[in-house]
Each structure stands twice: as structure tokens, then as C-alpha cells.
Amino acid sequence: MKYWGLFILLPCLLLAQPEFFGYFESEASTMQIGTSNYNYGFNKFRLDVEARPNDHILIGANITAQQYWGQTTWNMLDFIPEEIWTPFFPPDPLSSQAYSPAFPITIPDTLFLDNVYMKISLSSLDVTVGRQQISKGVGYAWNPTDIFNSKSLLDPSYEQTGVEGLRFDYTLAYTASVSVFIQPEQEWEQSAKQGWLKVNLGSFDIELTKASHNWGYPTFLTGPYLQNRSLLGASVVGEVLGFGTWFEGSSFQTDSPLATGGDEEWKEFIVGVDYTFENSLYILGEYLHNDLGVADKSELTLWDYLGALDGASHSLMQDYAFFYAMHPTFDFVTLSAIAFTNFNDNSGAFSPIVDWNILQDANLSVQGSFFWGEDDTEFGLQDWGLTLTATSSF
Amino acid sequence: MKVKLFIMVIASISLLSGQTPTAEQIVDRVTTIMSPESSYSKGSQTIITSSGKERVFQFESWAAEKGKSSLTRYSKPAAIRGQAFLMLNNADDIWSYFPRTKRVRKLASHAKKQKMQGSDFTYEDMGGGDVFQKKFVSSILLEETRNEELVWKIEMIGIPDQEPPYPKIIMWVRQSDYYPLALDYYNDKDFNTKSLVMSDIQIIEDYPTAMTMVMTDNKERSSTTMRTLEITYAWQPPKGFFSERNLKK
Fold first, then answer.
1. DSSP state, A221?
2. Residue range B111-132, pLDDT digits in tens
3. Is B151 helix (H, G, I), strand (E, B) or coil?
4. pLDDT of residue B85
5. Residue of B nearest to A391 (CA)
6. Nearest 5°: phi and psi at B10?
7. How many CB pairs under 8 A join A and B?
8. Residue B81's closest chain A neighbor by CA?
């Protein structure tokens, strides 16, 4: 039943002179955590199909095959400080073997239909039905108004997976629109619902949003705990004193606060700024405050880590900064760098990137990542990493 | 039709009277000729770097309100297929759309000076409208012959309060129809940073149209050739065409 849309839309796709496009991506990485070194990577092939039977209908789908190599089974405890998980994995006093607890997660090879949707455009109304990408918010590294996705700080602009649902976009005027997205579940109360109003005022884009959804909060031992959350959020993007500036924030509420440490209400917001210099150097900075994160490192629990790793919280702790700089330095070679820091535990990372458009449809990139902080901090736990990515689009 | 008639009448009166028009009159007429009410075109953009490497882009472009509003959508290369840019208010407001992330991003005005897809054209260069009239003071430097055409050489000095895209532009305008054949762009050190040359000028639906434009970056020794593969000025924008909704189509 999961891919019900495929059976309806595939015949239409094939009959409507579809366009095929996509990309192949191969990634190889190495990572050092303490005394352990891990080599891993993947080969990914994505095939997109789009068809327009007439001016009012767009049918789209993409199939992604991803094959992993090297380290494919990970011990999640390697990514969590020892003092956090030790109480849950006490050493067996009767065992003569070395103490090496594990919480293994295996990443299997996958072949999946990421998106399959049909978009019907009428005079002022767009209706999109099926599995589709939903990318909410104006933030670059974090999106407090996005209830469907979470981003990797080392690659925040990577594509998001699809969300099954029904979306309505109604244009009120040239500069205003109202949208509703519903992700149906077995019961209406459990279905995720989000609505937003977007208005352009002068050089500012303003968005107000309201949402409710059930979050499967991981409890590790007893299975996911469903927490109903409602959200009231806003975002503004525009220009102040010549700088691109943006704000995105949400106020959350829940009537089942067990999974959030008793918190019934919390707020999360980002502020960001960017600028492009005459020499094409682009810089961006963003600050995140998340009440749901933990302020003091000594109060972190295993559930906080699992929640952050799972995406139930947009961050592990409360206060972060993110920086990005990019410059097209040589012919088709772009040098860029990412840096981010956790102000609560004084850990962070610096990640230089070289991106080379080696041929018309081929890119090669090298990304290093160097982490700082104590061994029991969020980012200081890791030491360094290196990733080589080759991509070819067609 | 009214615009066509206006251009012809103005040009004829000026030529028949034998009087040299003022620089402001020439710039006014250049603006009129270069800013049709609306247009739809398909084009290619070839970037050649100083080391001879080449990248080819293909795009569709729509413009209205004499170039005040425009939308450009790339179809090639494959990696940027579907990437689109919406420019309103003569590129004062720019939104970009990235299909891989399905995300629309509003760009601040400083981004206007960014190279469009790494080419030698900036977003600002692609904006139309009355920039030459409102942001520059013009004067005729001399009359000369360029490519066997009689031209006026016009100097346009940017008005600082109006935030001109360049401090100075030199423009060569063909006397026969007021069509610009070339522009040199200068920086604040009076260095000729970029040069734009128009060629293969054809009459398309009564408008002279350069089917080839070459922008050369004199500092980086790179160039971008913009070729018009198909164009019509008869296209009329449907209601709400220049909107975020259409940017994502």
C-alpha cells in the first residue's frame, strides 16, 4: 500500500511522452573517531521521470538505487559519549570478555521510489497528490518550521526524501498565497497537517505557518513513543542595511510531554545573514536557539542523543552557529568552507570543500572535516573525516 | 504596433531633420528599442574560460513590462536542469529555485552583482528597463565608423545616488536605427572590466534583435556568448506569470 501512487501514475507517465533525467553519485569516505578508523561509501543512481500530458498536469517520479560498501553496520554508541550510555550497558561482572557494548545499526542497500506525484494546476490552485518533497523554511542549516525533514550540517543543501501527502497551493494575488499539506495516517488525529500563508511586502517575504503532527520519539528500549505536537511559526526574509537577512521561528506545544523531559512548550528560532562581495565571495552566517535542546552538557541523556540523531529535535543542545563561505576561485573550481559550533559544550567543526566541475556534466568534490572539543562533547567525539564525491548528471 | 510606429517616426524625424540628437535622446531611443513590451526566447550561453575550457547552457526566458519583470529557466546542462530565476523591479528583487531541493530562495540585492551560472553576465546585466535613463548622465563623445556602420560613441557616467550598476559605460549606438553595437563597462578605477559586443542583428517582428551577444571579461580573459535560438515579441504574459508559483513549474 505504501507506493499506491505508483500504480495509478506510472501508466499515465508512460503515455505522456516522459522526459528522463537524473544522476549517478559515488561517494567514498574515511572517518577517525578516537582510535578507530572507518572507511565507507555508497554508489547512488537516481532516475527522474517527468511527463506533462497537458498544460495543467505534471506527473513526476524518481527511483533511487543506493548500494553501500565498506562499513555498513555501525555501532551507534560510537557516536555518543561513553558516560551517556554506560548506565544502560553495564558490564557483565561474570563475563571474562572485554567490555565492548554495541547498539548496532545496519544500513542495507536500497532501491526505492523516492517521489511519485501528480500536480494539477488550475487558474489559481495547484493540487499535488502523492509522495513529494516538502522543503519548508528560509534557514540554510536549520528550519524550525519544517516538521518533515532534518538537515546534515556538513551538507545542508542535499536533497530531501519525499513525503506522502496531499498539497494545495492557492494563489490569492501576485504576492500572496496560501498552502495546506496533509500527510495522511491511519487516523485523522495522527495525520500531519501544515498550513502556511506567504505574503510579499516590498523586498520582504513573510510566511506564517501552523502545523500539528505526531512525532515518533525513539525510546530505544520500548519502541517509539508517539508525541503529538502543534506548531505556530513564522519566517521573514529580506534585506537590511544591504545584507540579506532572515528569521525563522516556531513555538511548539504538546499535551504529552513525557518524551520532551516534561516540556509542554518550547521555542526554536534561527536568524541568518548573507552577503556577496564584488569579487564574488559569498558568506553566510546563521544562529540557532532551540529550547528543546539541552543547555548544560551534564544534563544530557541517552534519549536526548537518540532524539537528535533521529531528527525528533533539530539539535542536541540549545545554541549553535553555522558559517559558510564560497568563492569561484578558478575556472569551474569553487572553494568553500563550512564551520559550525555548539556554544553549550564548546565543540564544533571546520570543513573545507573543493568542488570541481571537471566536465560539462560531471563534478568532483573533496570535503574534509576537522572536529574540535572535548571527547565527551557533541562534535569533539569525532576527530576528522574526508569525503570524495563524484557526480554525473544526465 | 504603436511602439514600432513610435520608433520609426522618431528615427525618421531625427534623420530627416539632419540634426544630431542629444545624448539623452539617443539613450531614450536605445532604451525604447531594447525594451520591447514583452518577449519569449530560447537561447544558449557558452562560457569559455581563459584556459579555453567550455561549458554550454540552454535556457528559456520570458520578459514583460519592458524588461522590468523576467523569468529564466535552464534546461541544460543536466545538473542544473529546472533551475530558475525570477527577477522583478529591474532585478531589484530576485528569487532562485533549485529543483533538486525544491527550494525557493530570495536573494538580497548584493547578489545582483553575482555571475549568472558562472558566466560573464551578472544578474544585473540581464535586468532590463530604464537603467540607462535613470542611473546615468550621458554625453556624446564622438561620431565614428564601427564595422562599416556610422555610430555615436556615448559616455554614460553613473549617478552615485542612484546606485548605478557600473560607474561608467561607453556605448556605441548605430545611427541608422539607434541599436547599440557594443558597450564597455568600467570600474571605479576607470578600468574597462567587461565588454559586450552585439552581432548578427536581425529584424524580428519589427524589432532589431542581436542574435549573438558576446560579453568578455577583460580581467579574467573569459567570455560568454549568448545566442538567441528563438524569439518572439508577440508573447503576452498570462495573469500571475511572474510569480513564485510559476518559478517552481
1. S
2. 888 888 889 999 888 776 788 9
3. strand
4. 94
5. B79
6. -60, -45
7. 92
8. A21
At CB < 8 Å, which residues of chain B contact A?
Answer: 49-51, 53, 55-56, 77-79, 81, 92-93, 98, 100-103, 105-111, 113-115, 118, 222, 240, 242-245, 249
With beta carbons under 8 A apart, name residues in chain A contacting B105.
138
Q: What is the rounded CA–CA span in Å between residue A143 and residue A139?
A: 5
Regarding beta strands A73-75 and A104-106, do their DSSP bridges make them parallel or antiparallel, or are they unpaired?
antiparallel
CATH number at residue B212: 2.50.20.10
Q: Verify whether the Cβ–Cβ distance B55 to A360 is below 8 Å.
A: yes
CATH of A143-394, one of 3.90.550.10, 1.10.3720.10, 2.40.160.100, 3.60.15.10: 2.40.160.100
Crossing angle, helix B23-34 and helix B2-17, to 10 degrees?
150
Please name every residue paired with A352 in a beta bridge, in sequence order, or none if there are none. A337
Q: To which H or E segment does residue B3 belong?
A: helix B2-17
* Nearest-CA distance B66 → chain A (Å): 18
Residue A31 has pLDDT above 50, yes or no: yes
CB pair distance less than 8 Å for B118 and A328? yes
- Greatest mean pLDDT range, A89-93, A170-174, B45-49, B117-121: B45-49
Of A315 and A90, which is predicted with more confidence? Answer: A315
Highest mean pLDDT among A24-33, A166-175, B44-53, B93-102: A24-33
pLDDT tens sequence across A164-181: 999 999 998 778 999 999
**Which of B124, B245, B246 to mutate: most A Cβ within 10 Å?**
B245
Q: Between chains, do A133 and B101 touch, taking CB under 8 Å as contact?
A: yes
Residues A335/A357, Cβ–Cβ less than 8 Å = no
Q: Which domain holds residue B185?
A: 2-247
Q: Are A53 and A16 in contact (CB under 8 A)?
A: yes
Q: Select the more confidently predicted residue: B22 or A87.
A: B22
Q: Is B37 within 8 Å of B66 (Cβ atoms)?
A: yes
The DSSP secondary-structure symbol of B237 reads P
Query: Closest-CA residue in chain B for A358?
Result: B53
A252-278 b/e (C-beta count within 10 Å ≥ 16 → b): bebeeeebbeeeeebebbbbbbbbbee
Number of domains in chain B: 1
Between A307 and B22, where is the model more confident? B22
Q: In A, which residues are within 8 Å of B91 by CB distance?
A: none
Q: Which residue of B has its CA nearest to A332?
A: B118
Q: Grid coordinates representing A1?
A: 500500500
3-state secondary structure A271-301: EEEEEECCCCCEEEEEEEEECCCECCHHHCC
Q: What is the mean pLDDT of residues A250-258?
A: 87
Closest CA to B226 of B53, B58, B52: B58
Coil, helix or strand for B84? strand
Interchain contact, A244 vs B110, CB within 8 Å = yes
The verdict on a CB contact (< 8 Å) between A243 and B110 is yes
Q: What is the ipTM of this complex?
A: 0.85
Return the beta strands (E) in A218-291 as ranges. Answer: 225-240, 243-254, 265-276, 282-290
Chain B contacts of A139, Cβ < 8 Å? none
